[in-house]
Design brief:
Distance between the termini: 36 Å
CATH architecture of the largest domain: 3-Layer(aba) Sandwich
Order of helices and strands: EEEHEHEHHHEHEHEEHEHEEHEH
CATH class of the largest domain: Alpha Beta
Helix content: 25-40%
Radius of gyration: 23 Å
Structural class: alpha/beta
Number of helices: 11
CATH superfamily of the largest domain: P-loop containing nucleotide triphosphate hydrolases
Largest sheet: 6 strands, mixed
Shape: globular
Bound molecules: adenosine-5'-diphosphate, magnesium ion
Strand content: 15-25%
Length: 334
């Protein structure tokens, strides 16, 4: 254990994993996650997020490198359930068990009092369903039960793999508030997603992965590249607005017949320019697509060294990305 390491700090150092068959799922990955923040662990499907999280949790053995929580490897933590809560992709429950009994079994394993089950059900808003069998639960309810299970030991660290999958907008909004609150209590929250839009309002920092490598880490502001605000303005008089802004040297890009994207100009200044140009404003908002574009550019590059070792007949690695931006106004509530 490294002396003086905060218990909630996650340190991934030169971590690599090559699976049998030569798939280099994680490639010399290094990043740090600090307590008191929500960190988004982002990358397209197949980027290596789940493999990394499983290595942090001691479920996959690294080919090389280390992952520690509070200076120790997960398996060396004295009481891991009280230190790290985890929600992995496919949480499994005995279908015939009630939510409450499921949690009580975990309490017994972890040496926690049985009453903790009711407390975590309350915490995740599942109290009313505590005596129902898990087999009747919706996907969203299962996600909440997985989160309740992770919170049993009141851990300072919470790791979640794609927690928004299967959640409806209300569930996503609830999760967002929940994670912000946990971070506000000084906990470390690491949450993976293949969609920036689903987490961008929740996370303080991002670690972006592409083909097993870290392509960017830093705050959300740093991700935008210090370019200042980008605003999307919709007006029927888009040409007039563009003319007045261009004459003032403002950077802008036409989006379509009625919309323009404006770089670096504060919203009141845009409003004033529109007023002067006699433009009727139909929409004006911070442009999320800008961050999406950065994310897309960072993760859609083909890796320069996709493989180490033989591939045994597998086709060359193609990051199976999906274009994450889904059009204006559909960025999701996160
Ligand atoms: N157990 C495994 N055996 C072989 N290959 C695997 C295994 N788990 C993951 N992979 C491969 O490793 C790469 C990264 O997968 P994964 O970590 O699941 O990515 P993500 O969670 O970002 O979608 C993919 O190419 C995947 O097919
Ligand atoms: Mg995954």
């Amino acid at each position: 254990m490294r002396v003086g390491e905060p218990p909630g700090r996650i340190v991934v150092a030169a971590l690599s994993k090559t699976f049998a068959g030569g798939i280099r799922a994680v490639d010399n990955l290094s990043f740090t996650v600090e307590p008191g923040s929500v960190t988004g662990f982002l990358g397209p499907n197949g980027a290596g997020k789940t493999t990394t999280l499983r290595m942090i949790l001691g479920l996959v053995r690294p080919t090389s490198g280390t992952a520690t929580v509070g200076g120790r490897r997960y398996v060396a933590l004295p009481n891991p359930l009280r230190h790290v809560g985890a929600c992995l992709e496919a949480s499994s429950f005995y279908p015939g068990r009630t939510a409450r009994n499921h949690l009580r079994v975990y309490c017994a394993h972890a040496g926690l009092p049985g009453k903790r089950a009711a407390e975590v059900l309350e915490l995740v808003g599942l109290s009313a369903a505590g005596r129902r069998r898990v087999k009747g639960f919706s996907l969203g309810m299962r996600q909440r039960l997985a989160l309740a299970t992770a919170m049993l030991g009141d851990p300072p660290v919470l790791i979640m793999d794609e927690p928004t999958n299967g959640l409806d907008p209300e569930g996503i909004r609830w999760l967002r508030g929940f994670l912000r609150e946990l971070a506000g209590q000084g906990r470390t929250i690491l949450v993976s997603s293949h969609l920036l839009a689903e987490v961008q309002q929740t996370v303080d920092r991002v670690v972006i992965l592409s083909a097993g490598r870290c392509v960017r880490q830093g705050s959300m502001a740093e991700l935008a590249g210090g370019r200042g605000p980008t605003t999307l303005v919709r007006t029927p008089q888009v040409d007039a607005l563009m003319a007045v802004l261009t004459s003032r040297g403002v950077g802008l890009t036409r989006v379509d017949a009625t919309a323009v994207r404006i770089d670096g100009l504060p919203v009141p200044d845009i409003g004033h320019a529109a007023f002067e140009a006699g433009c009727e404003i139909h929409e004006m908002r911070a442009d999320q697509a800008d961050l999406e574009r950065v994310f897309f550019e960072l993760t859609s590059q083909p890796p320069s060294q996709p493989h180490v070792g033989p591939t045994y007949g597998q086709p060359p690695y193609q990051p199976p990305y999906q274009p994450p931006y889904q059009g204006p106004g559909q960025g999701g509530p996160w």
